[in-house]
Design goal:
The protein is extended. 29% of the residues lie in helices and 30% in strands. It starts with a strand and ends with a helix. The relative contact order is 0.11. The strands form 10 sheets. An 8-stranded mixed sheet has the order 17-16-18-19-36-35-34-31. A 7-stranded antiparallel sheet has the order 37-38-41-40-39-42-43, with no helix packed on it. By secondary structure, the chain is of the alpha/beta class. The chain has 23 helices and 44 strands. It folds into 7 domains: 2-61 and 835-859; 64-190 and 797-826, Rossmann fold (3-Layer(aba) Sandwich), CATH 3.40.50; 197-291, Immunoglobulin-like (Sandwich); 295-400 and 598-690, Class I glutamine amidotransferase (GATase) domain (Rossmann fold), CATH 3.40.50.880; 406-417 and 424-579, von Willebrand factor, type A domain (Rossmann fold); 699-794, Immunoglobulin-like; 865-901 and 920-949, no CATH class. Residues 66-248, 409-593 form the VWFA domain. The chain crosses the membrane at residues 6-24, 36-55. Residues 914-928 have a biased composition (Polar residues).
């Protein structure tokens, strides 16, 4: 059977009649046989060429079989069941026939290839370890189908309980059908007799008010009668513990609690049974939003930053909560207790990257408010450039976007003495060779590389390292690439004593010779040198327009190092934790290269309208300083400085709002504001603009678990209690990782909206629901909380044999009871395609030569007859007796001798002058005549020629 890879070339077969017609007319002078021979060769030639172009293949039946085993290794499969399934595969491999192959895929939430198709008849120990918290059969089927070779019979064998809780296996059925691959199943039943207890449902109201009594309901399933302990918790505090008796089946238990604190709170139930198999399904929880006055979180960078703001907010009936940067919540549920968060002069290094991402999600996904208040540790100088928090704010930290700044020459003076070989781990030092942690010198190298990345192309960078003496690692010159900086720093070893003076002098000399407008040095050391010498150098540097900042990395003389920074006109940073150094270097470099702090007295100018300044347009107090920033494209600037820099800017970010107030709100830059009689009104309106909008008490909502899915229900009424219909309602579900899941709610009844989110992972979720009317105008917003306590993998009744049966029936598969059935050769034969296009091309070349010979050479039948006659003459001559041959050869010799004698006589009697008369020529064919006379073969040939002439 033939098939074609490029069948479109077969259209050239339509040209064959034309080829025959032209060939017939062009061969009119030839005999009939030659004409038909030429046409036949030409036809075969074209057929071979067209077949080669079309990619001709010969398809032959193949009986070899490849079986791919899909082994369920999720947590719903008991270890003993998994062992039984592995034994099934091992026994099946023993029944493989010659030419058969087998592959193994192990799956849970993901699928892994344990073994590619192979004819090895031994399974071995399973090495693949998939994520076991869920079961995704569809991914296993997809991977199994991808493993099959093209030229064998194919069979999938699925060993599972069918307890799918991720993906949709039925979506793989059409693919298996198209490839003619049956899915055989080996159902894995639930082991009987193993005790199992699980909290199958936990219910609590989604919202309550302070002082209200709420009811908590826990539904517990048990397959054996036993006793247990039931613990009720509010947040992480046990509020009630009771002994319970569990019958076989499902039982509900109820308790009541009075809620006090506002915000989102976690309520949970935990069952501690006497006999159990899995502990993962023994806890369930729910979030309850407790209403009250809006809570605002004030995060202080330094103690006292909130001293003026806190009483002003309390006067506005808000509930301010003041915490240091270390007290900032690090999970989204805890952050959501607050309607707004204000960062008061907090440096970026005090907020880790994960918490910064949560704050961005807190604003954009949950619709809450965020404000950054200025100070010497805030905005750009605080290190917020290119951070998640900057993304959520209406201003950019890079002031160079606004104006051209002067160039800078920056030198890092880095201690590379032996003490920098120590590792900094958990606030303490230890020898690097003892293992653990990162060496101080390596952290310093990373800090320099990061800081160099913010310098401009016109700036200059130098790095001098010192131990007993100074060493220029990077000469003061144009800033190299970050890769070049890393390469230059990499080979620097920590060794020797600490001589700070040598490093200071080297940097001082280079900077003094530089023509840069700004000259700055940053010293990093964990020791000290000669105090008097260093102080003098720092003071001289300052007199020559060179500023010096100092970073104390560990055990140095902090008081002395701080004194050097003061003499050098720079800043002092005590890095108690070495890991802070990169952020310090970055912050210090940013402050050095730009106008990040402007200290001058000015009165803010109006640039736009905002509810923040409602009824406050007259008599604004003056400010004494601010942080330099640049407004973003979509931001609204309300107040500006004298040079147009934003002082107050606001914008909508996602579902929430954020504000940038670039001055401070304490008695330094804003001393005239905090004593202003309208200051409480101003701060209340600023925070009020940040609070979530369009809350509606007539709108209620609930998020609940239905099976493995989350169901979101909203009931929306107007102020008169009438249903709000034809609304566009959308929900954003923010999970424990900060990733958002969007869902659209469908109206299932008058004013009733619902959405389902399939099988989210375990964790705490906050759901922001926003409803808009038909004209797109916001009508309501509601925040819901939900806790997915454990994966549906750990629920009872997880097995789904109906799904397995459906997969088998839809693909003509079977339920296997014996391992040998996995390699039954009962499938339709598969054909293997063998390409012959190259062979057809070579055949066409041979046919081309024959075609040319048939048209150019005039060969007739009598030519072949004569050739045969000559061959017979030669055979007859070979049979002449030896005596006759000898006689003939003697006669030939005498004739030749006589001929030479006659020739000699003619040469002796010349007729003319021998000098001028040419010698007589040899008679033509004389030798030939002699040969013919003497050689019987020649005589026969001569006779043949005479007969032909006659």
């Amino acid at each position: 059977m033939l098939s074609f890879v490029r069948p479109e070339y077969l259209w050239f077969l339509l040209a064959l009649p034309l080829v025959w017609l032209l060939g017939w007319f062009n061969s009119r002078g030839r005999s009939g046989q030659r004409r038909w021979l030429a046409l036949g060769l030409r036809t075969l030639l074209l057929l071979c060429l067209i077949g080669s172009l079309a990619g001709t293949q010969v398809r032959q039946p193949v009986q070899n079989l490849t079986t791919v085993f899909l082994l369920d290794s999720s947590d719903s499969i008991a270890p003993s069941q998994r062992s039984t399934n592995e034994q099934f595969i091992a026994e099946a491999l023993q029944s493989m026939q010659e030419g058969d192959k087998a592959a193994v895929v192990v799956f849970g939430e993901n699928a892994l290839v344990e073994r590619v198709p192979s004819d090895i008849q031994r399974l071995g120990t399973i090495q693949s370890v998939p994520i076991a918290a869920r079961t995704d059969i569809s991914e296993a089927l997809q991977l199994g189908l991808a493993l099959f070779p093209a030229d064998t019979q194919k069979r999938l064998v699925l060993l599972s309980d069918g307890g799918e809780n991720s993906g949709r296996a039925l979506e793989m059925v059409p693919l298996a059908q198209r490839r003619n691959v049956p899915i055989d199943i080996v159902p894995t039943g639930i082991e009987q007799g193993n005790p199992e207890v699980a909290i199958s449902a936990f219910r609590a109201p989604s919202a309550a008010r302070t002082g209200q009594e709420i009811q908590l309901i826990a539904t517990i399933e048990s397959n054996t009668a036993q006793s247990a302990q039931l613990r009720w918790r509010a947040d992480e505090q046990i509020v009630l513990e009771e002994a319970i008796s569990l019958p076989v089946g499902t039982t509900s238990f109820t308790t009541s609690l009075v809620v006090k604190d506002q915000g989102f709170h976690r309520y949970s139930a935990q069952v501690v049974p006497t006999n159990d198999t899995r502990a993962q399904n023994n806890v369930a929880a729910s979030l309850v939003q407790i209403g009250g006055p809006p809570k605002v979180l004030l995060v202080e960078g330094e103690v006292g930053d909130a001293s003026a703001l806190r009483p002003a907010l309390e006067a506005a009936n808000l509930v301010p909560v003041v915490v240091p940067a270390t007290g900032l919540p690090t999970d989204l549920a805890a952050l959501s207790d607050y309607e707004a968060i204000l960062l008061l002069n907090v440096p970026a290094r005090d907020i880790d990257q994960d918490t910064q991402k949560l704050l961005r999600s807190y604003v954009g996904d949950l619709g809450r408010g965020l404000a950054m208040i200025g100070g010497r540790q805030s905005f750009g100088v605080g290190g917020y450039t290119a951070t998640p928090i900057e993304e959520a704010l209406p201003v950019s930290m890079d002031v160079r976007n606004r104006q051209q700044r002067p160039d800078i020459a920056l030198v890092f003076i880095i201690d590379k003495s032996g003490s920098m070989d120590a590792c900094h781990c958990n606030g303490g030092d230890m020898a690097a060779r003892e293992g653990g942690g990162t060496r101080k010198i390596d952290i310093a190298k990373e800090a320099v590389a990061q800081a160099a990345s913010v310098l401009g192309k016109d700036d200059k960078l130098g790095v001098v390292t010192f131990d007993d003496a100074a060493h220029w690692t990077i000469e003061l010159n144009k800033v190299p690439s970050q890769d070049d900086v890393v390469a230059a720093l990499a080979p620097v070893p920590p060794s020797g004593q600490t001589n700070v003076v040598s490093g200071m002098n080297a940097a001082y000399e280079q900077l003094r010779q530089s023509d840069a407008k700004i000259k700055h040095a940053i010293l990093l050391t964990d020791g000290w040198g000669h105090a008097t010498d260093i102080g003098n150098i720092a003071e001289n540097m300052n007199k020559d327009g060179i500023t010096l900042s100092v970073v104390a990395a560990g055990n140095g003389s902090d008081n002395a190092l701080q004194r050097y920074a003061e003499l050098g006109g720079g800043r002092y940073y005590p890095a108690r934790v070495m890991e802070e150094v990169p952020q310090i270097f970055l912050q210090e470099t940013i402050q050095a290269v730009g106008t990040y702090i402007v200290e001058e007295q000015f009165t803010p100018a109006y640039a736009g309208d905002s509810p923040v300044l409602a009824d406050l347009q007259e008599g604004l107090p003056s400010l004494l300083g601010y942080n330099g920033t640049v407004e973003k494209d979509n931001a609204q600037v309300i107040l500006t400085a004298s040079d147009g820099s934003p002082i107050l800017a606001q914008w909508q970010y996602g579902l929430g709002r954020s504000i940038a107030w670039t001055s401070d709100l304490k008695g330094k830059w804003a001393s005239n504001w905090v004593t202003w009689d309208q200051f409480p009104r101003f701060t209340a309106q600023l925070v009020g603009w940040l609070l979530p909008r369009i809350s509606n008490d007539s709108v209620s909502g609930e998020a609940s678990l239905i099976g493995s899915d989350v169901q979101i229900d909203i009931v929306a009424n107007d102020e008169q209690g009438a249903p709000q219909t034809a609304m566009n309602v959308n929900a954003r579900m923010v999970g424990p990782t900060g990733e958002a899941i969007d869902a659209t709610l469908v109206e299932v009844g008058p004013g009733q909206y619902r959405a389902r989110v399939a099988s989210p992972i375990a964790g705490t979720y906050l759901i922001q629901v926003v409803g808009n009317d038909a004209n797109g105008k916001p009508a309501f917003a509601r925040t819901l909380g939900l806790i997915v306590p454990y994966s549906p993998e750990y629920r009872q009744g997880q097995a789904n044999p109906e799904l397995l049966s459906t997969l088998a029936k839809a693909t003509a598969g079977r339920s296997l009871s014996q391992p040998i059935q996995a390699f039954d050769h009962t499938l339709d034969a598969v054909r293997r395609a063998t390409p012959i296009d190259l062979g057809l091309l070579f055949a066409a070349l041979v046919l081309l030569l024959l075609d040319v010979a048939a048209r150019r050479l005039n060969l007739r039948r009598k030519d072949f007859t004569a050739l045969q006659a000559a061959r017979k003459e030669r055979q007859t001559a070979a049979a002449v007796p030896t005596a006759t041959m000898s006689s003939l050869q003697g006669a030939k010799g005498r004739a030749r001798q006589q001929m030479f004698s006659d020739k000699s006589e003619r040469e002796v009697k010349p007729k003319d002058n021998p000098a001028t008369t040419p010698l007589p020529s040899k008679p033509e064919n004389s030798t030939k005549a002699i040969d013919e006379a003497e050689d019987p073969i020649e005589r026969l040939r001569a006779a043949k020629n005479r007969a032909r002439r006659q």
